[in-house]
Design goal:
With 308 residues, the chain is mostly helical. The chain has 7 helices and 4 strands, in the order αββαααββααα. Helices cover 83% and strands 5% of the residues. A hairpin with a 5-residue loop joins strand 3 and strand 4 (94-96). Residues 84-98 have a biased composition (Low complexity). Keywords: Coiled coil, Signal.
């Protein structure tokens, strides 16, 4: 009997706690308006409210139990009405043995004592209800604590899974950055070799240009000497003219060579400048990739340290 009373008080406590939450829909049971929870959002309250739907039958059973217990208490203190007039079986069903006149006589005879016994029964019932309420409150607190611990454990598991997923993602990013860094270093090495080759070509073109300038100067001096001696070497005019023509051809060839070398030198300078710019960009990209890799590595180390 006590367990059923405790159960009803506990159900009433759960119902009052459920009614304070905004996440509910209205449900009517025997004229009483309860709260219907979602089984996913509030599984514990949902279970207790569903148990409350059978509260009316349990209430009737408890009333019968209380009535039966009161009768047993009256018989134990010597109440002739309950000890002689009624026989109660194991199913809490009590039947009168005497006729109606005798029963009325006994009720009148013991009316005063019945009032005293009723007062005692009320006091006993109040004490039992107070004790049941205290135990039900402790039980509800334990159940709420278990539910809170379960929810906290679920949140901790989800947080651990999220942290592990973030760590895996950071590891993949770090590996990708390291791969890009290696590729950038290879590109920088290739560009450095290309720059060295371009510098060698530019130096060679510069030396050729200087040689052509010297040759041009020398040929110009020879032409000047030849022109100054034309008037004094009329006999050698034809030979000198032929020589002049040859020198002129050589001069034109030298000029063409100089112009060609100048164009090649300009192209080499442009190529050198462009290559130098590309090398600088590659160097900056490699530096930035190293910095990104260092930041990701530090972040990963700090995340691993915080998890430990």
């Amino acid at each position: 009997m006590n367990s059923r009373i405790y159960f009803l008080i506990f159900i009433a406590f759960i119902a009052s706690a459920v009614s304070a939450s905004p996440a509910y829909s209205k449900l009517t049971i025997n004229g009483n308006r309860l709260r219907q929870y979602s089984p996913i959002e509030h599984p514990f309250a949902y279970e207790k409210v569903n148990e409350l739907t059978n509260c009316e039958e349990k209430k009737k059973e408890v009333e019968n139990d209380v009535k039966y217990s009161s009768q047993k208490f009256s018989r134990s203190i010597g109440d002739p009405y309950y000890s002689q007039d009624m026989n109660c079986d194991d199913q809490n069903n009590c039947n009168h043995q005497e006729n109606g006149n005798d029963q009325q006589q006994r009720r009148n005879e013991y009316s005063d004592s019945n009032a005293s016994r009723k007062t005692s029964n009320i006091a006993l019932k109040a004490a039992q209800e107070a004790k049941a309420a205290e135990e039900a409150q402790e039980m509800a607190g334990k159940e709420a604590s278990k539910q809170a611990k379960f929810q906290l454990a679920e949140k901790a598991i989800q947080a651990a899974k999220a942290a592990q997923a973030a760590l895996s993602a950071k590891k993949m990013i770090l590996e990708e950055l390291e791969r890009e860094l290696r590729e950038a270093e290879i590109v920088v090495q290739d560009l450095s070799s290309s720059i060295q080759q371009s510098e060698s070509n530019a130096n060679a073109a510069l030396r050729a240009y200087q040689q052509a300038q010297a040759l041009l100067k020398m040929l110009s001096e020879l032409i000047q000497v030849a022109q100054s001696t034309v008037g004094y070497a009329e006999q050698a005019a034809q030979g000198s003219q032929q020589e002049l023509n040859e020198k002129t051809q050589l001069l034109e060839a030298a000029k063409n060579r100089v112009e060609k070398l100048i164009r090649e030198m300009k192209a080499a300078k442009v190529d050198y400048t462009n290559t130098k710019k590309e090398a600088y960009k590659a160097s900056m990209a490699a530096k930035e990739a190293r910095q990104n890799a260092s930041r990701v590595r530090r972040h990963q180390m700090s995340a691993a340290g915080s998890e430990q």
